[in-house]
């Protein structure tokens, strides 16, 4: 089994100039990736709009999924590289991400389910055309 | 034994119990715990937004049809460009922050000051952009929207707006406002840390961990904006 307990105390996390060069290289690489993703998102947002594709179409569903996947990739880069969670212990990663993901996914699920109900009953019956 | 550092840790920086869980410092771990709770708050807001939006499906406005103006260009149509620029500004200020943290690990005080200063500038630029966007959102377009009684509404307030259901403007104000306030407090924290670095407090302490902790908060603010950008403006 891979040992993940041999990590120095975080206050001693000093590194040399050579190590710094590599880290900076990685930072600029991630910057480029984040910028490219943002540009891609905006271009798609400009050329494939909800009104053109239709809110119920599969094409729009695909675009939405495209956005969500790119957003999660962006978030992963920020959390793992910029916030250095990728350099922390495996256990610590779970302590931070586990509870959060659990709560967020549950909330998301219950809200999507309930808003479907709200839409099909209240809004369409009592507030048509609103 | 798992969960302990490999070498003797100075008593002065050890946790109160004489151990250091996950060989992380107390302050850094508590910052992470705070960020998790704050992330849950933002998730609550964004999911509530999704809930209302999904319930009003069909009448909810699309981001590119509301946010298509650019400062100094009048009533132009450049959808999402300004928001994309704001996103880029915040990402860049996140990069300068991580470079400040990296310089701190090399005990390079000059570089820390340089990058941290740029981070603060980036934060102020973002806040200024948000002020412009709020102002534009509140004042609205020149044509506005005609209501049932024949009167014309321009822009938005808490009760009615020209873009869509009233909740649309309410969520805009609340989510971007709450995020903007986070950015504002982040800038203040960065400014305080910058002054401490300039005065040499961190150097005497022997480590720049305070820069790292302020950095965690700052990256988190950027992280939230990535989600706000997707779910409020793009989708």
Structure description:
The complex is a heterodimer of chains A (130) and B (235). Chain A is an all-alpha fold and 130 residues long. Chain A is 75% helix and 0% strand. In chain A, helix 1 packs antiparallel against helix 3. The model of chain A has no long low-confidence stretch (mean pLDDT 83). Chain B is 66% helix and 2% strand. Chain B has 7 helices and 2 strands. Chain B has a two-stranded antiparallel ribbon with strand order 1-2. The relative contact order of chain B is 0.14. In chain B, strand 1 and strand 2 form a beta hairpin. With 235 residues, chain B is mostly helical. Chain B starts with 25 loop residues before the first helix and ends with a helix. Classes of the chains: A mainly alpha (130), B mainly alpha (235). The interface between A and B is large, with 67 and 75 residues.
Describe the structure concisely for a colleague:
Chain A has 130 residues and is an all-alpha fold. Chain A has helices at residues 17-47, 50-53, 58-82, 90-126. Chain B is mainly α and 235 residues long.
Q: What are the defining features of this structure?
A:
heterodimer; A: 130 residues; mainly alpha; 75% helix; flat; B: 235 residues; two-stranded antiparallel sheet; 2 strands; 2% strand; elongated
Q: Which assembly state applies to the chains in this document?
A: heterodimer
Number of strands of chain A: 0
**Which structural category fits the helices and strands of chain B?**
mainly alpha
**Any idea what the shape of chain A is?**
flat
The averaged pLDDT of chain B comes out at 87
* Unreliably modeled segments of chain B: none
Percent of residues of chain B in beta strands? under 5%
Number of strands of chain B: 2
Q: What is the secondary structure topology, with strand pairs?
A:
The complex is a heterodimer of chains A (130) and B (235).
Chain A: H1 17-47, H2 50-53, H3 58-82, H4 90-126
Helix pairs in contact in A: 1-3
Chain B: H1 26-55, H2 63-66, H3 81-105, H4 109-139, E1 145-146, E2 152-153, H5 166-198, H6 201-205, H7 209-234
Antiparallel strand pairs in B: 1-2
Helix pairs in contact in B: 1-5, 1-7, 3-4, 3-7, 4-5, 5-7
């Amino acid at each position: 089994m891979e040992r993940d307990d041999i990590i120095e105390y975080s206050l001693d996390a000093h590194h040399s100039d050579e190590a710094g060069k590599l880290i900076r290289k990685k930072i600029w690489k991630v910057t480029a990736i984040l910028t490219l993703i943002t540009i891609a998102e905006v271009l798609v947002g400009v050329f494939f709009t909800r009104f053109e594709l239709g809110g119920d179409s599969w094409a729009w569903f695909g675009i939405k999924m495209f956005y969500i996947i790119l957003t999660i990739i962006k978030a992963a880069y920020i959390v793992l590289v910029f916030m250095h969670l990728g350099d922390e212990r495996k256990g610590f990663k779970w302590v931070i991400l586990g509870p959060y993901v659990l709560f967020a996914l549950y909330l998301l699920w219950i809200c999507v389910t309930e808003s479907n109900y709200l839409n099909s009953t209240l809004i369409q019956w009592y507030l048509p055309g609103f | 034994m798992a969960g302990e550092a490999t070498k003797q840790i100075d008593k002065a920086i050890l946790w109160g119990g004489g151990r250091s869980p996950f060989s992380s410092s107390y302050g850094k771990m508590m910052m992470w715990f705070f960020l998790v709770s704050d992330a849950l708050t933002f998730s609550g807001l964004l999911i509530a937004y999704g809930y209302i939006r999904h319930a009003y499906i069909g009448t909810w406005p699309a981001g590119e049809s509301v946010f298509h103006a650019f400062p100094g260009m009048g009533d132009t149509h450049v959808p999402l460009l300004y928001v994309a620029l704001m996103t880029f500004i915040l990402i860049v200020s996140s990069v300068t922050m991580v470079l400040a943290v990296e310089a701190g690990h090399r005990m390079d005080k000059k570089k820390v000051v340089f990058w941290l200063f740029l981070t603060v500038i980036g934060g102020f630029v973002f806040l200024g952009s948000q002020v412009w966007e709020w102002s534009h959102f509140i004042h609205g377009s020149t044509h506005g929207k005609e209501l049932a009684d024949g009167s014309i509404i321009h822009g938005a307030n808490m009760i009615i707006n020209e873009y869509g259901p009233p909740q649309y403007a309410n969520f805009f104000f609340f989510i971007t406002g709450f995020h903007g306030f986070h950015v504002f407090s982040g800038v203040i924290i960065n400014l305080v840390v910058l002054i401490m670095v300039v005065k040499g407090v961190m150097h005497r302490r022997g480590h720049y961990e305070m820069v790292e902790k302020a950095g965690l908060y700052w990256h988190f603010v950027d992280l939230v904006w990535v989600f706000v950008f997707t779910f409020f403006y793009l989708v």
